[in-house]
Design a protein that fits this description.
This protein is of the alpha/beta class. It folds into 4 domains: 160 residues, MoaB/Mog-like domain (Molybdenum Cofactor Biosythetic Enzyme, Chain A, 3-Layer(aba) Sandwich); 61 residues, Alpha-Beta Complex (Molybdopterin biosynthesis moea protein, domain 2), CATH 3.90.105; 84 residues, Molybdopterin biosynthesis moeA protein, domain 3; 73 residues, MoeA, C-terminal, domain IV (Beta-clip). 19% of the residues lie in helices and 28% in strands. It has 7 helices and 26 strands. The strands form 7 sheets. Strands 7-4-6-5-9-8 form a 6-stranded mixed β-sheet. A 6-stranded mixed β-sheet has the order 16-13-17-21-20-18, with helices on both faces. The protein has a 5-stranded mixed beta barrel with strand order 22-24-23-25-26. α5 packs across α6. The longest helix is centred in the C-terminal third of the chain and has 19 residues. 38% of the residues are buried. Bound molecules: adenosine monophosphate and magnesium ion. The site of magnesium ion has 7 residues, from loops. InterPro entries: MoaB/Mog-like_dom_sf, MoaB/Mog_dom, MoCF_biosynth_CS, MoeA-like, MoeA_C_domain_IV, MoeA_C_domain_IV_sf, MoeA_linker/N, MoeA_linker/N_sf. Its cofactor is Mg(2+). It is an enzyme of class 2 (transferase). Its EC number is 2.10.1.1.
């Protein structure tokens, strides 16, 4: 069996990044959460002119060297620069963001200035050269690369583009994902349950995560456990999607047709991973689309989605700046049951204890069919394959959930 790390490596090596020629140009207002497909270079300097960081007075050091009391030559307001001659032995009244008059060495904040009855101003001390001046290009220089290919357009990067006067941006197309659940026992949410039936949790969970990942979702509903119907549905799904995600039917039971059908009409690149939960995960390819077969148990489906499908979608969407959340060391607050053999992703709750250390406890029972306790968790406790039971106080690695599960 492959380790998760090996499976990820194989999968990411096989999956392509989107081609640059498929990029679309979008106005900034429609580009949120999309992936940048073209390097963005700043057409201007920011700030685009020297301006004041304070409300106060723009001064020349030479004037102050002669006298600490100066007359006021005029005003420079934001958007309305000082006009005309700047007479010797005078200061210019200036507001935050206003253009620095030519020849000024510094801005003295108004709190440090005495206004005299005759309209002159007296300075208490000599300012430093450049004090309270924001210089042209200090933040972004014309020609700087402000956004790279493969970065996400966010509430931080889009306003930056706006501040540079850039109105449109090239983005990769959204990944089209077909989602379907398999199982005779499944009933869609909202319908009454008959004897022996259960609600279809996985399609709903997967759809929600795909929405967060800004995918285009094609809902292929629920399939009964019937080989021909699997074949027909997989064919229809792969004709329209870049990626087909199924859940259930991927184990070794008599009604588990996912892998059989994938093998028949496409190819299985790997099946089964040495992780718990989530062993029966299938990755492969159909004629026109990639294929991820998630296990049926809802906890396993979610864990394999997070650990495998999430990076796969990042790759397919061109999100090369995507990084897996880092693991952190934590103290186990209680003992943890663990069998040697597979890498374990227990659901845990971590917090900072009174000693300022990260401490983690498992949340309830860890069965892969037990979804209820998942809600109480905020991290995975990632236990190495070769590790056995963990005693309270031992160090374990945790993987805090990112926004996909948060
Ligand atoms: P399977 O791999 O199809 O044998 O499914 C394993 C377990 O997960 C069984 O108990 C199924 O009833 C359950 N299961 C499969 N698909 C879903 C689903 N979409 N929602 C909730 N439970 C499911
Ligand atoms: Mg099934």
């Amino acid at each position: 069996m492959l380790s998760l790390e090996q499976a990820l490596e194989q999968m990411l090596a096989q999956l392509p990044s989107p081609a640059a020629e498929n990029a679309q140009i979008l106005p900034l207002t429609q580009a949120a959460e999309r992936i940048c497909a073209q390097e963005v270079i700043s057409p201007i300097n920011v700030p685009s002119f020297d301006n004041s960081a304070m409300d106060g007075y723009a001064v020349r050091l030479a004037d102050l060297a002669a006298s600490m009391t100066l007359s006021v030559a005029g005003k420079s307001f934001a958007g309305q620069p000082f006009q005309g001659e700047w007479a010797p032995q005078s200061a210019v009244r200036i507001m935050t963001g206003a253009m620095i008059p030519t020849g000024a060495d510094a801005v003295v904040m108004q709190e440090n200035v005495t206004l005299n009855q005759d309209g002159t101003v007296t300075f208490s001390e000599l300012p430093k050269q450049g004090q309270n001046i924001r210089y042209i290009g200090e933040d972004v220089k014309q020609g700087d690369v402000v956004l790279k290919i493969g970065e996400k357009l966010t509430a931080l990067s889009l306003p930056l583009l706006a501040s540079l006067g850039i109105a449109e941006v090239a983005v990769f197309p959204r990944v089209k994902v077909a989602v379907l659940s398999t199982g005779d026992e499944l009933v869609p949410v909202g319908k009454p349950l008959e004897k022996g039936k259960i609600y279809d949790t996985n399609r709903f969970a997967v759809t929600l995560m795909l929405q967060k990942l800004n995918c285009e979702i094609l809902d292929f509903s629920i399939l009964p456990d019937n080989e021909e119907q699997f074949e027909r549905a997989f064919q229809a799904a792969q004709a329209q999607a870049n990626l087909v995600i199924t859940s259930g039917g991927v184990s070794v039971g008599e009604a588990d047709f996912t892998k059989t059908v994938l093998e028949k009409i496409g190819q299985v690149n790997f099946w089964k991973i040495a992780m718990k939960p989530g062993k029966p995960f299938a990755f492969g390819k159909l004629e026109n689309a990639w294929f991820c077969g998630l296990p049926g148990n809802p906890v396993s489906a979610l864990v394999t989605f997070y650990q495998l499908v999430y990076p796969a979608i990042a790759k397919l969407s061109g999100y090369s700046a995507w990084r897996r959340p880092q693991l952190l060391p934590a103290f186990a607050a209680t003992k943890l049951k663990k069998a040697v053999g597979r890498q374990d992703f227990q659901r845990g709750f971590y917090q900072i204890n009174a000693q300022g250390q990260i401490e983690v406890s498992p949340v309830g029972f860890q069965g892969s069919h037990l979804f209820g306790s998942f809600v109480k968790s905020n991290c995975f406790i990632v236990l190495e394959a070769e590790r056995g039971n963990v005693n309270a106080g031992e160090t374990v690695m945790i993987e805090p959930f990112d926004a996909l599960l948060g």
